[in-house]
Amino acid sequence: MSQSNRLRIAIQKSGRLSSESIALLKAIGIKLQIRDRLLIAHSTNQPIDLLRVRDDDIPGLIMDGVVDLGFIGENELEEKMLERRASKKAHEFKTLRRLDFGGCRLSIAVPTEFKYDSVASLNGKKVATTYPYLLERFFAEKGISAKAVMLTGSVEVAPRAGVADAICDLVSTGATLEANGLREEDEVFVSKAVLIQKSEDLSPDKQALITRLLPRIDGVLQAKESKYIMLHAPKNYLEQVKSLLPGAEDPTVLPLAGINDRVAIHVVSSETLFWETMEKLKALGCSSILVLPIEKMMG
Ligand SMILES: Nc1ncnc2c1ncn2[C@@H]1O[C@H](COP(=O)(O)OP(=O)(O)OP(=O)(O)O)[C@@H](O)[C@H]1O
Ligand SMILES: O=P(O)(O)OC[C@H]1O[C@H](OP(=O)(O)OP(=O)(O)O)[C@H](O)[C@@H]1O
Ligand SMILES: [Mg+2]
């Protein structure tokens, strides 16, 4: 591929999505050298360039066709899509994969002393948010007439600062809300990080590269959810043991050298093995129970 035909991927420069986006690219075999001050990183083993930008800019870069792929939170993506649609700008994109990081929710929260029965309690109130389009869509769906006040950061201080009566912001553990004397009430949007592609067709070379990388992403995601379980079990209790192993339709059963009444069982499980199940296996006479992480998988 020529230099101009290198696949361009936008990732957040620094923030909640950066390290996991880079980790995923590395896990699928893309060699990268990220230097903090460099905003473009070239892969040394694939025709891929990374553009390191603010996450707010990623949806627009994709929708304007400036980059080919991007890692972005669905909250930011949907907000920018609504905003661009309203101002009649290009707002198309393709979602390639929903990923396993950046999980959060956009929620309405009120000061602890605020009497909130339902979202109707916000009628006539001001709500501070970085996501006015998502919030206004939610209000329209619920038939609420409240005003969204746009703030680009520190949304949690808005009620105390007298800027708004309530807020609508991202929540994960709830610690930030609690620290600011706020109570979560209604969920407006649930989000995860996604990998998106621009909607125009790519060159056959670029498309072929993406088609080769997507099964690797699936393999990494699947491997993270799976465990390799090994144990020794008494032959007499084989069926009981199998029924205790989660998601284990086809375990491999192997003989143990010099031991006739016991076998080794190996199984790839889509779930982890909980301590309670391990205790039950032990009670059935199982031993050497090992639960191992899996690095990569391919069907
Ligand atoms: N507490 C959280 N837990 C998990 N994911 C989160 C959390 N907060 C935000 N996210 C997700 O990560 C994305 C980026 O969040 P971050 O706080 O790093 O953005 P930012 O401050 O807008 O950064 P930037 O400087 O790039 O504009 C959010 O849009 C959301 O999808
Ligand atoms: O429910 P919690 O687990 O407390 O997380 C929620 C906080 O996380 C995000 O901010 P972040 O920490 O990324 O900082 P930022 O506001 O500077 O972007 C978000 O904007 C909330 O403020
Ligand atoms: Mg941002």
Automatic annotation (TrEMBL):
Family according to the record: Belongs to the ATP phosphoribosyltransferase family. Long subfamily.
Protein name as annotated: ATP phosphoribosyltransferase
This protein's UniProt keywords: Amino-acid biosynthesis, ATP-binding, Cytoplasm, Glycosyltransferase, Histidine biosynthesis, Magnesium, Metal-binding, Nucleotide-binding, Transferase
Role of this protein: Catalyzes the condensation of ATP and 5-phosphoribose 1-diphosphate to form N'-(5'-phosphoribosyl)-ATP (PR-ATP). Has a crucial role in the pathway because the rate of histidine biosynthesis seems to be controlled primarily by regulation of HisG enzymatic activity.
Native organism: Glaciecola punicea ACAM 611
Protein's cellular compartments: Cytoplasm
Pathway: Amino-acid biosynthesis; L-histidine biosynthesis; L-histidine from 5-phospho-alpha-D-ribose 1-diphosphate: step 1/9
Main location: cytoplasm
EC numbers, comma separated: 2.4.2.17
Domain Histidine biosynthesis HisG C-terminal: 223-296
GO-annotated cellular components: cytoplasm
